[in-house]
Write a structure and sequence with these properties.
6 helices, Alpha-Beta Plaits, two-stranded antiparallel ribbon, 4-stranded antiparallel β-sheet, alpha+beta
């Protein structure tokens, strides 16, 4: 399995608010290394990275029956597994309430991956812009990558990929200063296939 980050592969007509595990990748605008740096194979967050971490960890506080599984903040992107559990009351605790959704024609469905990501990106951007006095400054690429995790085997492979992202930064697809893309894809394919053997 090679994990790609270039474009969304959303399934047409799939309800991204239904219970399940979702792997997401969000990149900074221009792939700028805004969140810190890799030192000796470990991610060292700067103040922007720490703010993003704080907002990421707050996601379950804002959405009922949503939790973060494995996640990592890299210099210019984030990987996370978001789990949506069955819920008797669909909606958010603090974000994207149902009544707002009913009045809109467009926009993500409440408690969906799209709604969760949009709320997180907005909150992190707002907090960072206040911190740095940069009102209106963009932090994220407009789109993001998501993948529906279909079984336990795939979940464990993606967890392993996330955990091993910092020590293998030179092989990261989002690392502009790393190795050629073919070498990166070969490395991750071999790394993840060995885990499956």
């Amino acid at each position: 399995m090679i994990i790609h980050h270039r474009r969304s592969i959303r399934l047409k007509n799939y309800d991204y608010s239904q219970p399940g595990s979702y792997f997401i990748t969000l990149c900074t605008i221009g792939k700028s290394q805004l969140f810190g740096e890799i030192i000796d194979g470990e991610m060292v967050l700067n103040d922007v990275g720490k703010t993003v971490e704080h907002r990421l960890l707050a996601i379950p506080d804002h959405y009922q029956d949503v939790e973060l599984d494995q996640w990592v903040i890299m210099p210019n992107h984030i990987h996370a597994i978001i789990v949506i559990y069955p819920d008797d009351v669909v909606g958010a605790r603090h974000a994207s309430p149902l009544q707002l959704y009913k009045s809109k024609i467009h926009g993500p469905k409440p408690r969906s991956i799209g709604s969760i990501v949009a709320s997180f990106k907005s909150a992190a951007t707002k907090q960072i812009n206040i911190l740095h006095n940069t009102p209106g400054h963009s932090l994220w690429q407009r789109n993001y990558y998501e993948h529906i995790i279909r079984d336990e085997k795939e979940l464990n492979r993606i967890r392993r990929y996330i955990i091993n992202n910092p020590p293998h930064w030179s092989f990261d697809i989002e690392n502009r200063n790393g190795l050629p893309i073919d070498d990166k894809q070969k490395f991750w394919s071999k790394f993840l296939n060995e885990f499956n053997a």
